[in-house]
Amino acid sequence: MKHLTMLFLLASPALADGPVVEKATAQRAGDGWRFDVTISHPDTGWEHYADGWRVLDMEGNELGLRVLYHPHEQEQPFTRSLGGVQIPEGATQVQIQARCIVDGWNTETYMLTLP
Question: Number of helices (H) and strands (E), helices first, in the chain?
Answer without folding.
Answer: 1, 8
